Amino acid sequence: MKLTFVLTKLARGALTLLLAVTFVFIVLRASGDPAQIMMSDEASPDAIARFRERWGLDRSYLEQYLTYLSAIAQGDFGLSFRDGRPALELVMERVPVTLLLGSAAFMITLVLGIPSGIFAALSRGKLVDQLTMSATIFGHSVPNFFLGIILILVFSMTLRWLPSSGTGTIWHLLMPAITLGTGAAATIARFTRSSVLDVLHQPFMRTAKAKGIPYDRRVLRHALPNAAIPVVTVVGMRIGGLIGGAVTIETVFAWPGVGLLLVNSVNQRDLAVVQAVVLLIALTMVVVNLCVDLAYGWLDPRIELHNKRAAKA
């Protein structure tokens, strides 16, 4: 894999991060004055002015923006308005909990999505295929937050088998992970099925069959590796979807992760914390997409060659 290929992807990732930070910076400041929200209704105009001066909110937007970019370049993400602690420290305290939820949901996604998609493709038109496609339609149709509420009503409020909120045990993790992982599993199952079916009808598969290669070997050695690239694409996209979906799911289940911190910080206009969380999410998305692009180049070197020819044209 060429160094220029990697450097190009890194440059695009850096530009994406800059755009994300800029967008959040503008939206947060355009949505209201944090001083008015953080201070009590009885606060005097002098107290509000001192608050704005202390946190640099009395400066122009351009000056605040340049100061913020300069601070980020030095690893300083600012202080929380709420308790005065470093914003990055507050975010990193929540990261392990969110990683636990995301990892569990991702495992559920892979275990349910890829095998069911493969079996559906290999059993096209049969009962297994019909049941799988019906399940994927259900997974696409039901919003994650609605599924989470249904699970709480059934397994917490009615059956009283599982806790409805909090963390600490595997039983606390079970419902949030299932809620977050099932929608992504439906997407991956559909794309896996389509990709495998497309490969099964390629000429090289008919050639392998004509040569007398056993069916199992044709599927494992020829069909699945060639069907992997579209699946890798969807898996990478769904990782980002799991991160974004964690904001809603953590709120529904009161899971004390980064998503819940983001919601609370937005409500309180805690600018530094919100910006740190969004930057972390954007960085995660960039890293995931970079890994997917690098996996493309490894799985099929023709992709790198095609990109190079397109750049020359």
UniProtKB/TrEMBL annotation:
Positions of the ABC transmembrane type-1 domain: 95-292
The organism's taxonomic lineage, starting at the top: Bacteria, Pseudomonadati, Pseudomonadota, Alphaproteobacteria, Hyphomicrobiales
GO molecular function: dipeptide transmembrane transporter activity
Gene Ontology terms: cellular component: plasma membrane
SUPFAM superfamilies named in the record: MetI-like (SSF161098)
Keywords recorded for this protein, A-Z: Cell membrane, Membrane, Transmembrane, Transmembrane helix, Transport
Major localisation: membrane
Family statement: Belongs to the binding-protein-dependent transport system permease family.
InterPro entries the UniProt entry points to: BPD_transp_1_N (IPR045621), MetI-like (IPR000515), MetI-like_sf (IPR035906)
Pfam families recorded: BPD_transp_1, BPD_transp_1_N
Subcellular location(s) of the protein: Cell membrane
Organism: Devosia litorisediminis
Domain of life (superkingdom): Bacteria
Membrane topology (UniProt): Multi-pass membrane protein
Segments traversing the membrane: 99-122, 142-163, 169-189, 227-253, 273-299
Protein name listed in UniProt: ABC transporter permease
